[in-house]
Model the fold of this input.
Amino acid sequence: MPLTLQQKLAILSDAARYDASCASSGTARRDSRDGKGLGSTEGSGICHAYAPDGRCISLLKILMTNFCIYDCAYCVNRVSSQVERARFTPEEVVTLTIEFYRRNYIEGLFLSSGIVQSPDRTMEQMVQIARTLREREQFRGYIHLKTIPDAAPELIDQAGLYADRLSINVELPTDASVAAYAPEKNPGTIRGAMDKVREKRAAAKERGHRGARPPRFAPAGQSTQMIVGADGSSDATILGQSTRLYGDFGLKRVYYSAFSPIPDSSAKLPLIQPPLVREHRLYQADWLMRFYDFTAAEITSVTPDGNLDLDLDPKLAWALAHRALFPVNVQRADKALLLRVPGFGTKTVQRILSTRRQRTLRYEDLQRMGALMTKARPFVTLQGWTPGALTDSADLRARFAPPPEQLSLF
Done:
């Protein structure tokens, strides 16, 4: 008996939860307030994602299909997996997107897919969906397409003309891991496709000799997703790979997805199941690299095995391991050092730099500026406050680490 649209939606929205790389920040301003078209890339609104500016956005997040011809060991939708399968037609995805938008459920579409028939055939249908939404339905909301690196370059070119953001998964942290657990995928092909997107985005920003701009291409940039914990890669390896990806391809974001063993898996994967807190720590470390000028080597040097401290956020763990640099004088320290103080965010540091030109700062000023003084207190000195022996106290880590919990036997 054929599945209903509602049944397909239940299956394929659930299957899409493993795709982490969706956020709509950074795209072009586009809306239908002029009376033409439908939707907007802005405003507040089924998936809730958070943009870097903290804005909550709502996306219809689905797979076009969870059928797949590949047999990646870590993927629940691999060809050998015994999961319930479903497949949308392009027209059904268009209908769902428009109807959900009209009901004010969503602001846009995040579309990924398993590989059916061939990479080209799958990519053709995904492009068809985006083209129909833009040209026939005049949809001006956000579209994110998870593209297929093995597809023909001209199909990825077309995808970038209709989508706000493209993403291409690097899959795993190292080429050796991809070869071991996803042998049908080629890291060189993946990087080649990512580089092609980078080049097309750069070309789209250049004006011609008459001043005309070429068509926009993925104006919100490209991102990627990395599965963590399916192989034995350390956090140092993972963050080092992220550093290279940001530098080589100008990515907007690397998304980390904690691997969870698949119940029916017969694949021989390492017995590693990182808790979600590891994924969270990787995101925190990634943030420090992008906005606080930390390097991957610095962040992961805190522990001997190159993994992040799961009990403490990476910035606090780094500060505890480098107590000789603290406490810093908030009135005189340079920006680079202030950014390394636990509890100080980038906005707080900017406020400190602006205010201290006019007057001497006090403890209460930092609180008003948004500093988290419960973390910062042992690491700073200023008028009216000095940590004394607190910075070097033996139990300082214990003040921040979570207390031990009694585990239940049942």
